[in-house]
Every structure is written in structure tokens, then in C-alpha cells.
Design goal:
The protein has 2 domains: about 10-190, Beta Polymerase, domain 2 (2-Layer Sandwich), CATH 3.30.460; about 220-355, no CATH class. It has 13 helices and 8 strands. With about 350 residues, the protein is of the alpha/beta class. The chain is elongated, with a radius of gyration of 33 Å. The chain is about 60% helix and about 10% strand. Strands 1, 2, 3, 4, 5 and 6 form a 6-stranded mixed β-sheet that branches. A two-stranded parallel sheet has the order 7-8.
Length: about 350
């Protein structure tokens, strides 16, 4: 198919240059995508997607037919290669922009921040557009940055013909504008919530590090921060010393539901269990390991025995121990047998005699 039939010789020359230099654009596209992907990975910036396209010949011919006299050569057309970075959050657009400014040379005169041109119906068009250039590539290219919601709205908007110059009744225009406003508000709220959660995590981490555990509610984030302090290290080391055993590290995150299940509301409650049940946990381990040659133990033995000692001291008996194993491993018939055996073993241990006032 011939796209250049209606073009003058000047525009046809630009089309021919486009064809001749097409491999250069393909190489540049691959390089830009590689640089962006690598940079986002190294900086920990998580984006929704990175897309690219090289303008098709028919699209370029249409552009030249409309305003070919504007361009002296192919180098004056900055959108032959286009890249789009879609982020999850508004504030990540700025982070992407900063990364691009460091990687490429930005033509500020021809770049545009459409977010500052804020009409009531412009939500899907609030992208940040950079015109860029890079070493060893003689042509400029465009990078567009927008959020997922902005991108989704722009696509829906385009599909309805809202921005296509079609005469649309005011009632539909009003509805579209209302929806655009709602999406813009959602976009802003998502970023606000993420920022507040980040501040909360920093505050919690600071409280945990400072030892103010009674003020820290027990949840997934706080428990992870607490585990970074290695709170069960002392009990594990003492138990390992029984047989001079090696401690094999395992994830202790499953104990979050266990500590919640036995009534812990704050990190201070866990700390209290460690303090009050330390001797009982050690005595249980001594009874179980004393006559064995076990030389490798799991790092979960400390929290396990602490919970069991706590349950027995609370007088919850076999049912309480079974409940502990149900929380930890799921409900299994073997939990009843293990619980009965543990209660029988522990009944004459010193911490139980102290509990019974003997």
C-alpha cells in the first residue's frame, strides 16, 4: 500500500529517510527499554509497565500530510520513537521523571507537563511528556509518564470519542467529567494512603527499635520489625547448649497467628511471655533433648516452647496445647496426641510445680 501518494517531494524525502534509518530506531528502542528496566530494578522503583512503539509509516505519512511544512527533516519529528511508563501512584511519576533526567538529555523547551494544564475534563491527559535524546542516536524521542488510572481513563475516553471532536450531548459530557473527577480523587487518595502507611511503618519501626513495645500493636508489619531484633536468640542459644547443637534458621512469621491466638495484642505481650516463660521453655527442652544426641535444632524451638510453657502456666492444659498446634500447623488428629504427650512430660517439671504452689 502506498502512503505517500499525496505527499510533496519534501515529505517523501522524510519518509525515505525514515525507511533508511528504521534499524537505528529499533536499536534505540531496545536500548531505552533496557536502560529504564535496569534503572527501575536497581532503584527499587516498581512500575506497572513500560511500553514502546515506533511510529508506523502510514501514521508518519498522515502527520506529514497534515503539517509537513513544519518539519525540515526527520530529526524535527520527535515522536517517531515513543516510550510510555505507567506507574501505580502519582508521586512515582516524579521519581520516574528524575530517573529519566539522569539517563537522557531532556529537551525542556519541547517537553510539556500536561498536569499543569488542568481543565475540568483533562484527567486522562495529565501525563508528563519529555522529549529526550541520548548518545549515539541522532534523533529525539518522547517519553510519556502517567498513572494506571490516568492511562485507563485515556483509553476509555478515546474509545467513547469524547476527545475526538464529535458533538456529544451535554448530559454525557457532564457524566464523563464527573467520572474523571472521581478517578482523579482516587488517584490522589491512593498516593496519600501509601504515604500514610509508610509513615506508620517508620513510626512503628522506631518504637520497636527504642524498646517501647507496649505501645506497638501486634500485626504483620510490627511482628516483622520485632523479628529483626532477634527476640528469641537468647532462649534458642540456651536450648542449643543442652546438646551443643547448631541452630538452623527458619521463618518465624507463622508465629504471628499463634501469638494472636493466645491473646497477645501488642509486642509488649510477646516480650512478657519471653520473660515470664523463659525458664519453663528451657525446662521443656531439657526434658525432651537431655537423653538424645540431637545436634541440629530449628530456630522455632524457642518460640514454640515459650508458647507451650505460657499455656501450661495459664492452666489451659491439653486443650490449650492442642489449640497451639492447631494454630501453628492446622487442625490435625496428631495434634491431640502430641498435646497429651507434652502435658504428661511437663507435669513434674519445676516451673509447673511453682505454678501449683509446690
Amino acid at each position: 500500500m502506498t502512503y505517500t501518494a499525496h505527499l510533496d517531494d519534501h515529505c517523501k524525502a522524510i519518509i525515505q529517510e525514515y525507511k533508511d534509518k528504521y534499524p537505528l530506531f529499533e536499536n534505540a528502542e531496545a536500548k531505552v527499554l533496557s536502560l529504564l528496566t535496569q534503572t527501575f530494578k536497581e532503584t527499587g522503583l516498581h512500575v506497572a509497565s513500560v511500553e514502546s512503539r515506533i511510529k508506523k509509516e502510514d501514521s508518519l505519512a498522515g502527520k506529514l500530510e497534515r503539517k509537513g511544512s513544519k518539519y525540515k527533516s526527520l530529526a524535527d519529528i520527535t515522536d517517531i520513537l515513543g516510550v510510555r511508563v505507567i506507574t501505580y501512584y502519582i508521586d512515582d511519576v516524579e521519581k520516574v521523571a528524575t530517573a529519566i533526567e539522569r539517563m537522557f538529555e531532556v529537551d525542556w523547551e519541547n517537553s510539556i507537563d500536561k498536569r499543569k494544564v488542568h481543565d475540568i475534563d483533562s484527567f486522562g491527559y495529565l501525563s508528563l511528556h519529555y522529549v529526550c535524546s541520548m548518545k549515539d542516536f541522532p534523533y529525539k524521542f518522547e517519553v510519556q509518564m502517567r498513572t494506571v488510572l490516568q492511562h485507563a481513563w485515556a483509553n476509555l475516553d478515546h474509545d467513547t470519542g469524547y476527545k475526538a471532536g464529535v458533538e456529544i450531548p451535554k448530559r454525557y459530557m457532564r457524566s464523563m467529567s464527573r467520572l474523571a473527577g472521581m478517578l482523579e480523587l482516587i488517584d490522589e487518595e491512593f498516593s496519600k494512603i501509601r504515604s500514610e502507611i509508610t509513615d506508620y511503618r517508620r513510626k512503628v519501626h522506631k518504637l520497636v527499635s527504642s524498646g517501647n513495645l507496649d505501645e506497638v500493636p501486634l500485626d504483620g508489619d510490627t511482628f516483622r520489625s520485632y523479628l529483626e531484633l532477634d527476640p528469641f536468640r537468647q532462649i534458642n542459644k540456651k536450648i542449643a547448649a543442652v546438646n551443643q547443637a547448631e541452630i538452623q534458621e527458619v521463618s518465624l512469621l507463622p508465629y504471628l497467628s499463634v501469638f494472636k491466638g493466645i491473646g497477645c495484642k501488642t509486642l509488649g505481650d510477646i516480650h512478657a511471655i519471653i520473660k515470664d516463660s523463659f525458664d519453663g521453655a528451657y525446662q521443656i527442652a531439657c526434658y525432651q533433648m537431655g537423653l538424645t544426641d540431637l545436634d541440629i535444632i530449628s530456630s522455632s524451638i524457642g518460640p514454640q516452647n515459650l508458647c507451650i510453657a505460657y499455656i501450661l502456666k495459664k492452666g489451659w492444659g491439653k486443650g490449650g496445647v492442642r489449640y497451639f498446634f492447631d494454630l501453628l500447623n492446622g487442625k490435625e488428629k496428631s495434634n491431640e496426641i502430641v498435646a497429651e504427650m507434652i502435658v504428661e512430660q511437663a507435669k513434674d517439671l519445676p516451673f509447673m510445680n511453682q505454678q501449683n504452689g509446690k
